[in-house]
Amino acid sequence: MSHCLSKVQQNPQFPSLRVCASVPSVCARPELGGDVHIKGDQRYFNPGVRLTLTCKRGYSPVSGPRSIICSTSGKWTRTNFFCSGVFPRCPHPIAFSNGELHYTDNVYGSTINYTCHKGYNLIGAHTAECLANGSWSAPVPECKSVECGLAPIPQYGAIIYNKMIRGNSTRYGTWGTYRCLPPYVIFGDARAECTASGTWTKTPECQVVTCPPPENIDRGYKSNNEQRPFDYTETVKYGCLGEFVLEGSFQIVCQKNGNWSEKPSCKGEPTREVSGRVLILYRGRNMYIKELKPDRVLHNEIVSFYCMDEARKCDYVVPTQCIDGEIIIPECFEEPSVHSDSLPSEIAQC
């Protein structure tokens, strides 16, 4: 495009003729294919400027002049230069220990994401990209186990590890069991573990636990009458006097809370006397009460009485139990009188 000079020069021979000067136009930044690369970000170029054309990473030049020139008309010279999208491939990623990798392809521009399993720290790059030269941008990282120091030991305590420990460090997943020196007792979780954060779980405490001297039980005796504090897990045994029967555990234990376990009790014989002529079912056989040896039924024992079915003129058995010296006599039972000729137990059973 031509432009006249702002100051017109007059020719004395031809007064009406204006003299114009030609001013060259600039070229705008060329719009080429998306795969063609032009260095820099300049927007306008003067005539005569030459631009070198290259391909973006991963693309290859195919044909045409690899440069264009800005002409005085403000146009770029023509070119059929273009780039081919034949992408290189990187080697297939290899698996690595104690972690996982995630990717969708191994062509140029693809990425790999690396992660480690719980309790392991990633050493190296978390991601890698497939480059134009067919190689990954970073080597395969390493997943290194989290380390803790040695487990803290409570006062008057010790720990037993689940495996041999060498040096002053332990790895994630290592665990141990705390023990306290007698008479100390563990308060807290006895199991300790090296966690994924590189620290040990909470350390328990070792404390002394004692129980007061145990009390005696009614109608009974105990194996230890010492008036002193008893240590945790110490035991005391109980027994019953005469023919009283022990109900419950025969011994008590000093528990972790400083209390004794539940004491037993002594249960007695029945208080109601029944005529010796009565036939009963006791310990699997028929016998008269006067034949009992000893002459009583003991606590928790079962004894069966015979009752009369008046309508059918036959007898049947009703069991009952001795509970703490008491036997509940069945309502149907009738104790024979002195002048009775026969007893229900002597009649045929229903």
TrEMBL record:
Pfam families: Sushi (PF00084), Sushi_2 (PF09014). Disulfide bonds join 27-70, 116-143, 211-254. Keywords: Disulfide bond, Glycoprotein, Heparin-binding, Repeat, Secreted, Signal, Sushi. It comes from the Eukaryota. InterPro entries: ComplSys_Reg/VirEntry_Med, Sushi/SCR/CCP_sf, Sushi_2, Sushi_SCR_CCP_dom. GO terms for cellular component: extracellular region. It is found in: Secreted; Virion. Its main location: secreted. The keyword Signal applies. This is Beta-2-glycoprotein 1. It comes from Mola mola (Ocean sunfish).
